[in-house]
TrEMBL record:
<feature type="transmembrane region" description="Helical">
    <location>
        <begin position="246"/>
        <end position="269"/>
    </location>
</feature>
<dbReference type="GO" id="GO:0006874">
    <property type="term" value="P:intracellular calcium ion homeostasis"/>
</dbReference>
<dbReference type="GO" id="GO:0060292">
    <property type="term" value="P:long-term synaptic depression"/>
</dbReference>
<feature type="compositionally biased region" description="Acidic residues">
    <location>
        <begin position="92"/>
        <end position="102"/>
    </location>
</feature>
<keyword id="KW-0106">Calcium</keyword>
<dbReference type="GO" id="GO:0008273">
    <property type="term" value="F:calcium, potassium:sodium antiporter activity"/>
</dbReference>
<feature type="transmembrane region" description="Helical">
    <location>
        <begin position="276"/>
        <end position="295"/>
    </location>
</feature>
<keyword id="KW-1133">Transmembrane helix</keyword>
<dbReference type="GO" id="GO:0060291">
    <property type="term" value="P:long-term synaptic potentiation"/>
</dbReference>
<feature type="transmembrane region" description="Helical">
    <location>
        <begin position="144"/>
        <end position="167"/>
    </location>
</feature>
<keyword id="KW-0472">Membrane</keyword>
<dbReference type="InterPro" id="IPR044880">
    <property type="entry name" value="NCX_ion-bd_dom_sf"/>
</dbReference>
<dbReference type="GO" id="GO:0005886">
    <property type="term" value="C:plasma membrane"/>
</dbReference>
<keyword id="KW-0109">Calcium transport</keyword>
<keyword id="KW-0050">Antiport</keyword>
<keyword id="KW-0812">Transmembrane</keyword>
<dbReference type="InterPro" id="IPR004837">
    <property type="entry name" value="NaCa_Exmemb"/>
</dbReference>
Length: 306
């Protein structure tokens, strides 16, 4: 059921998309549908007062001239229409959000661009469509544990293929494994984090977008690396895993320096995400990449070897 507000009078500004979307965003972040009725009414009352004050401000800006055609009733129900893309006045991306909520369809697209995308992702989408229940369908919603576990298994399978193919490409073009890991594999494993960060950032959850990037790297180091090594030890009678790299120690030190530079850069930009900060992050990444490749190729000699 759509939320509704009760107020003493009617106001044309409430029919404005900016006002509707602002109230809806406030309700998303403040109203808990599972809370007790008393708290719900209290917060709804606050929204009611804010809407009423907005009406008065708009009337004052209009030099006190009110629309005579607007009825003055003591019990007018104002329907709050949610925005299409989670932002005020934004119809952009509304179709994309609706498509994301719809079950997956393998129908042939209409435009050439969508057809090209369809053919590219079909080898990945088709096995998922066959083996995993689409929980966006009402009849398959109860199978979400199977879909969740199956998705993890498919991620592991595709990750194995990605590492295997990257290794073969490196051997074909005489590129070392370390450089392939710093470039191709690093970019491939970060694309899912990029997509999720963009999605939550467009919804206005900037803190979640940043923390997702930081948390995913911590998870990779503390779980993603040790867990396969632990399985290898168990299978091979606890035989140690040898890790060797020409500039591993210096690369780790360089990572800590890069972390320091990132914090300084964000502080210099007054803790706000901007285009300048984005270009600065790209610059730091390329500096780290160049120095790491030079260490691996022994162009720069690391004083401490592992």
């Amino acid at each position: 059921a759509k939320p509704r507000l009760q107020r003493e009078g009617s106001c044309a500004s409430l029919h404005n998309s900016l006002m509707r979307n602002s109230i809806f965003q406030l309700m998303i972040h403040t109203l808990d549908p599972l809370s007790d009725e008393g708290r719900f009414k209290e917060k709804a009352s606050i929204l009611h007062k804010m809407a009423k004050q907005k009406c008065k401000d708009d009337a004052a800006n209009a030099n006190g001239v009110a629309d005579k055609n607007i009825p003055n009733s003591t019990n007018v129900a104002v329907e709050v229409t949610p925005p299409m893309n989670g932002v005020a006045g934004g119809d952009e991306g509304g179709d994309d959000d609706e498509d994301e909520d719809q079950p997956l369809s393998l129908a042939w697209p209409d435009t050439n661009r969508k057809r090209l995308t369809y053919l590219v992702i079909l080898p990945i989408v088709l096995p998922l469509w066959i083996t995993l229940p689409d929980v966006r369908r009402e009849t398959s919603a109860r199978f979400f544990p199977m879909t969740f576990l199956g998705s993890i298994c498919w991620i592991a399978f595709f990750s194995y293929l990605m590492v295997w193919w990257a290794h073969q490409v490196g051997e074909t073009f005489w590129i070392t494994e370390e450089i392939m890991g710093l470039t191709i594999l690093a970019a491939g494993t970060s694309i899912p984090d990029l997509i999720t960060s963009v999605i939550v950032a467009r919804k206005g959850l900037g803190d979640m977008a940043v923390s997702s990037s930081v948390g995913s790297n911590i998870f990779d180091i503390t779980v993603g690396l040790p867990f396969p090594w632990l399985l290898y030890n168990i299978i091979n009678d606890f035989k140690p895993v040898e890790v060797s790299s020409n500039g591993l120690f210096c690369a780790i030190v360089l990572l800590f320096l890069m972390l320091l530079f990132v914090i300084i850069s964000i502080a210099a930009c007054k803790w706000k995400m901007s285009k300048f900060l984005g270009f600065l992050m790209f610059l730091l990444y390329f500096v780290f990449l160049i120095v790491s490749v030079m260490l691996e190729d022994k162009i720069i000699t690391c004083p401490v070897t592992v």
